[in-house]
Structures are given as structure tokens and as C-alpha cells.
Amino acid sequence: MYFKKYLTQPHYSLHLERIKFEEKKMSGKVSFKTINKLALPSILAGIIEPVISITDTAIIGHVPQNPTESLAAVGIVGSFLSALFWILAQTKNAISSIVSQKLGARKLPEIKNLIPQVLLMNFLLGITLVLLTHFFAREIFRFYAAKNLILQYAVSYYHIRVFGLVFTLITFTLFGIFRGLQNTYWAMFISLAGGIVNIVLDYILVYGIDGYIRPMHIQGAAWASLIAQFLMMTAALWVFIKKTPFDLKWVSQIHPQIKKFLSMTANLIVRTIALNVAIFLSNRFATSYGKNYIAVHVILTNIWLFTTFFLDGYADAGNSLSGKLIGEKDFYHLKKLSRKLVKYSLWVALGLSVVFVLFYDKIGLIFTGESAVLALYHQIFWLVILMQPVGAIAFIFDGIFKGLGWVKYLRNMQLLATFLVFIPVLLVLDHFGLKLYAVWTAFWFWMAFRAGSLWVKFDKEISG
Length: 464
Description:
The radius of gyration is 24 Å and the shape is globular. About 50% of the residues are buried. Helix 13 packs parallel to helix 19. It has one domain. Helix content is about 85%, strand content about 0%. The model is unreliable at about 1-25 (pLDDT under 50). It has helices at about 1-5, 10-25, 30-45, 50-60, 65-90, 90-105, 115-135, 135-145, 150-160, 165-180, 185-205, 215-245, 260-290, 290-330, 330-360, 360-365, 370-385, 390-405, 405-430, 435-464.
């Protein structure tokens, strides 16, 4: 009787409501809404860079003067710049991990003085890379097996685009800070605006405006990208100053978290260098097969990078949320997060694969009208489609491991994937004359190894 009476008391009802509220609050940590609130803006922000590259490639591939050589040159430079951008972007992942973990532990004020020091370091790093690569551009692209007109076009294009390294490095660092604060909308809006500016300027500067602007051919595409990168950096700095709890006030004393930042960055850079060894070798082998092969390889690489950045949206959500959850020491929701991210990412990969199958021929026509190039593209593109599901899993655990700070393991698995999987498969299949089949089959095994090794490690550590 007393128990029944107790259940009807107002204080008990309030207690039940409080329990329900807390359960709802906890389940919301890794809900569909929470994940997609971070992932969808990150997807839109992430695909802008490959969309810019695809736009450059598509426009240059249709110029009336030497379209195949122009396409090859833009592709080679794009590959080298992507390598540099990916290496530099590791500072974004390192600072994002630190910020998200401090946010989860409610200790953001501890890193307020760290941010200006990181930005200055990255500015100086960008300037150094510009100076080192600008004066050795010809030697760099000869190393990619470029020669004659392709080499000439590549050097002239790079001499303009290289200055965007500084702008992009600062922008990437700021985007990492925004992501650590669980906000991917700011990066999305800035990236969309920059992408629109780039596309519009591409058409204007490459083809010109009769009576007003002379056609600038391949150099016009370089100027379009450089201007867009500068505007994006300016917008990101404005948002950083106005919308975040951080500022640019300099403190001369080195922040104690700098050591952790540099250690994470160094491991991620080694990992990314190993990744780019595979990218470089794929370009070098494709270039050695002839101009049609490198043109097709450029097309396939641009499509693959588009899907990579697309799938990276959920990886970015994993990076941001896993860092916050580990800061809170919430391992239950961390494991739940991984399962949901894999499921969502696989659905996205399946959707992309269906689109690619339905528009198989039309996608090639976006990039070129050359019949020999299109015929070769038709033979190889299905391998890129097969990479989508394994890529989805690899990218998810890449993002989660970065958020958790497990960067040494990421480094080691990438080294193994490149030197014990990608290179042997490439060399063996190339020996049998499979050419681009060799390149893209090696990529599939490379990606599958990364996906499997990271998933097994995560389950072992979190479940154990």
C-alpha cells in the first residue's frame, strides 16, 4: 500500500521525468541527428576541394589547344599539390583532436594560448614549402615523368598555384579548430563560397571574355584557384576571431601542449607521406604508359578524390565526436558511435556506386571528348566503383583514430599498407603488362588492408 502511494507522489514522478531526460540526453550523444549535424556540413565542405579540381580538369580538358597535354599537366600538378595539402592538413587533425578532447573535459581555457602559436608555426611552414618547391618545379615534375609540352604546362601552372599553399594551410588549421568545437557549418559555408568563386573565375579566366579579358588557358585556372584560396582564408580568420573563444593574442612562453601537437602532427605527416608514396607511384607509372593513360588516370583520380572527400564527412564527424567522448571517458558511446558511422558511411558508398553505374559513360564525357581516352576510361572505371565500400570503412576509422589520438598506429598501418601491400601488388601486376589495371587493383588491396587493420584494432582496444 505504501509503495503504491509512493509511486503516485509528485517527487517520484519528477524523478522518473529526470531519468527519462538524462537517458534521452545520453542517447543523443551519438544519435543520427547528432552525427549528421556534423557530417553533412563536413561533406559539403569536403567535396569543394575535389569539385574545384574536377572543374579545373573538365574545363582544361575541353580547351581547343592541346587538351590532352593540358589535362595531363593539371592532373600531375594537382596530384603533387594534393600530396602537399594532405601532409599539411595533418596539423588540422592534430589541433582538432586536442580541441575536442579539451572540450569534452571542459578545459578549453587551458589551450587558449596554444592556438596563435600553432597558426604562426603553420604560416612559417607554408612559406618554407612555397620557397622550396617554386624554384625546383621543373625538377619536381620531371620526377613525375612529365616531359616536353606536358612539363612546360605543368611548370607554368604550378608557379602560380604554389602560393596558395600558405592560404590553404591557415584555412585548414582554422577548420580543424572549428571541428574540434563541434561546428562544421562554418567550414561548409566558407568552402561553398570559395568553390563558387573558383568555378566562376575558372570559366572567365581560362576562356576569357571577348573584348575585356584575354583567354589565359592553363594559367587562368591557376589564378582562379589562388584567388579563391585567399578569400577562403580571409573568411575563416574572420569567423575565428568573431565566433570562437580563442583569439590571436601572442604569448611568448611556449605552450606545454605544443609537444603533444608536434608529436601528433609528425606521426600523421609520416603516415601521409606513406600515403602519398602510393599516389606518386600511381602517377609515375600511369605517365610512363603514355599520354592517354595519364589522362585517364587523372580522370579516375579526380573521381576517387571526390568520393574520398564525400565519405570523409562521416570520418570528420567521427574525429570530432570520438575526441569529445574520449575526453569524457565515455567508452560505451564511443563503440556505439563507430558502429553507426560504419553503417551510415556504407550506405553513402553504396549510393555513390549506384550513381556511378547508372552514369558510367556520361561521367567520362564530363572530362574529355577524346575517343581514345574515353575508351580506356570505360575499361578501368569499374575498379574505382569497387573501392567505395572498403574506402568507406577505412576513412571512418581513420577519423576516429585521429580523434582519439591513436596516431602512431595509424602511421604504422599506413606504412605497411604502402610498402608491403600497394607496391608489391603494383610491381607484380605491372610486370604482367596490366598497366592501369595494375595501378587500381593495387589501390583496392591498399585500401582493404587499411580498413581491416584499423577496425580490428579498434574493436580489440574498446571491447577489451
